[in-house]
Write a structure and sequence with these properties.
Length: 840
Amino acid sequence: MRFTIERIRTLVLVAAVLLLAALGVFLAAARWKNRFHSGDVPQRLAREIQQESRNFDYTHNFGAHSRFKIHASKAIQLKSNHLELQNVEIDIFGEDGAQSEKIAGGEFDYDQKSGIALAQGPVEMLLTQPAARAGGGKPAGRTRTAAGVAGDTDSVHVKTSGVSFNRTTGLVTTAQRVDFSTSHGGGSSVGAWFDSASGHLILMQAVELTTYRGKDMVRIHAQHAEFDRNEQVCELRAATLEYSNGEAVAAQARIEFRDDGSAEQMEATGGLTLSTATGGRMTAPRAEMAFDEHNQPRHGRLEGGVIMDSTQPGRVVHGTSPTADLNFTEQGQLQRAHLERSVDFQSDETVSESTGRSIRVRRTWRSQVADLEFRASRAAGSAHLEPQTIRGFGGVTITSESRRGNAPAQPARMQADEVTGMFGESSALRSLVGTGHALMEQVTAKGEHQIARGDRLTANFRQQENRETQETRAGGKGAGSSGQGSNRDAQAGAAPDLQTAELDGHVALLEQPASAPGAQPQPPLRATAERAVYEGDGDLLHLTGHARTTGEPRIVDNGLNLIAEKVDVSRQSGDAYARGNVKATWQGANPASAGKAGAQSGSGLAGNGPAHAIADEVHLNESTGQATFSGHARLWQQASSVAAPEIVLDQHRDTFTARTGNASEPVRAVLVSAGRAQGIPGGAQDERKTSSPSVIRVRGGDLWYSDAEHRVVMRGGVAGTVVAETTTATSVSDAVELRLIPATASDDGQTQVDRMTATGHVLLTSQGRRGTGEKLVYSGLTGDYVLTGTAQVPPSMSDPDHGRVTGEALIFHSRDDSVSIEGGGSETRTETTAPKAYAP
């Protein structure tokens, strides 16, 4: 857009001075000749064939100082009332007395009857630019040119022929070629028409102007050009301006000048096209441009539907806007473009990965208003403009669709009230910042639909390095010389990959898993946080918050409600890591099967009500379906609970385990036994009653639970033994197994222990009694303990009153504190009087 319009005006003015000076001065000489021969020259010439004089000289003053001098080798007065001057030299002097123009021609002819003067052959002129002579007596060696800058006096060399001047109408015309040149350039046209009275100049056709700006050449082509000296207006038709970095084409161009000769305003109608050497193109039906006193463009406006196109290797961009306002730097460089009323950009980009696959990325930008900032770049060794920022207002929507090879397309969308984009080298998108109702949506290669919302979104893109930079870093071997370099090149590509993204303020995430054709859709995963940060290198998502002000991050996944101080999610594996004050709740599903599609409540630890878990941290493994709670982990539902340094839930097997690596921190489980039967022994079933359930506490080295089997197994592990405590007895053994009764509505969803079995080196203590054996079975319904041993080592029991007893089986009846001994085909019942430690 650095149009050198001052050169157009200067060269057009020079053409006017050329024609007027050459013929107007000659006309004055002809009039002087008439006076020299007195007023009766026509009659006298009619009586003579001709009159001839040699070394003709004439000097004439214009006002007090300015004047011209004519010298001809021969002057001939013809009887046809024509006057001819041969080998003419005309010197024109300025007001300061210095010579300003010099005109030379082989032959001039003047028809005194018609008042038409004609230069018979070629005419050459040496002229000084008009503005350089307007110094009012200042030396001509250092003055102000039409370009508005101080510089040496600029001479104009002109060549033409066939010039005529009509004294009556004041018209100067030629149908021949006009050539003129200066130190800054030159030009030509075919045919010229100049009204000396009105100052209106017309260059008829094939107008060619050439000038220089520094070392850069500027070419101007026009089908037709007109200049009005009085109105200071120049009009060009079908004009093309070519410069080093592009060209401008206008069907009609009107240029207005200031009194000092500088361009003030340009108006283009009928279509304006601006093109750059790097493939950029901008068109509009109408355009206006304002210039400063140095002829540099300052402001511009394009109307009627602006179209912007850019074509580069592997990338095509197309944009539209009803209007565009342009601002320029003091050096005339495009600095800012303001687009209004529905702005639309579309880009299509295709690159090849090092693997040979092609990536095609299509993007769109839509906003009500957009501001573009530009900067100068010297990429690829040449100076050109490239975008620096783009900022959209009034609601911005950015969409993209990427396709690798023949894989399905992956669509994505970003929205915000305002969006600012930053560009790097080669116009590559570097970052995007969206504020106000920010949203990012995409469909992954696995078919997962992901939506992220927040108050502010910041996205940074990985920039592709050019080949020279890659080879330099690789020691001249190229980026693909190592496996790591190839991988980075494949990740980057020319289409920028997302490197990092930050979503701040009231963050809400939703992920809908892909469903197989015909299958029932799975429940979506939802997450909330104050801040979400995405890292492209590891494909990780970090969720953080503030417990007091904004709340901690929360994940809801098919009945699982997880809260922690920080949550990290791997988008590649689907794994999640929660750290710091972790809280988890399963609503209406077993913790072992939480997260499974269609998971229902069942028996076991979870029962029918919500289950809860707390820990220092948790790892959710997507591939194995395991959730590992570690660091003071505790899992509970209603009155049942498990506590351990580590608890692992396996949703694929509907199991969970609890374990410890430190004997001082054993695994602890609290369960509720089934209500004990009470009433008359041996009575009818409908006469028996069931007491309230009692609590069973178990601790050991590790615990395993199966929801499908309704079974809990505790082993000694690093703790050495398993300790089980009920309201009436305590057992120590190598392992304990608990069989559970599935929860029912009548149980208020509370799971209960139907039977507990302790095995291996069993030691039972209850109300002063002490029993040993290899196996102990406790019935939650009856409250009885059955202790057995082996044939070699039968069970035994001792108490303060009866001493030691043994048999094949020792049965402790907690309902009446009695002990039965079975063995040898008989049963012995022993009553005890020991004080009760617990109420039945």
